[in-house]
Amino acid sequence: MEAPANEYVIGPDDVLAVNVWKEPEISRTLPVRPDGNISLPLVGDLVASGRTPVELQKEIRKQLVTYLSDPEVAVVVQEAKSHKFNIVGEVEKPGSYVMSGPMTVLDAIALAGGLRDFARETKIYVLRVNTDGSRVRLPFNYKQVIKGSDLKADVQLEPRDTIVVP
Predict the structure, then answer these.
(1) What's the rounded Cα separation, in Å, for the pair 107 and 92?
(2) Where are the alpha helices (DSSP H) in 39-131?
(3) Which of 161, 131, 127, 124 is nearest to 146 (CA)?
(4) Strand (E) or helix (H) holding 143
(5) How confident is the model at residue 1 (pLDDT cuts 50, 70, 90)?
(6) Is the pTM of this model over 0.85?
(7) Is the dihedral of CA 38, 62, 51, 16 positive or negative?
(8) DSSP annotation of 153
(9) What are residue 156's DSSP bridge partners?
(10) What is the rounded (10 degree) CA torsion for 63, 31, 3, 23?
């Protein structure tokens, strides 16, 4: 099931607060493991990665119905750590960064401290892994974007994108 574009999709390393009303021994704050699962008392392992908080809430509630009458469950993403991008090459601070919200390549370059002196501004590109595992290369012309002549060319980043600044 594909999540609506405006809904957060849980991923590994995210920290979730799972609250079951009037059941403090089941409620807890826990990280999503690298395998995409979480573990809860009475429920055991559940797949969290790839689901929205609402979808996970419904699944936990369904699992708890066996043990509790009409359980009220809330799932809150306390720390969104799974949505990261990488930036490599001729920037001041190359590395992996957490996306704090919608971001573009220009935002990422700013976060990485800007371009170095010998960066090839017209040859920057984004490497993106599609859902089917294939890779795509999206060109980004820094000079055009900062001039304001082609603002649509400022590529919207997706989690796991890698920006290459030659």
Answers:
(1) 14
(2) 53-64, 105-111
(3) 124
(4) helix 142-147
(5) very low
(6) no
(7) negative
(8) G
(9) 104
(10) 40
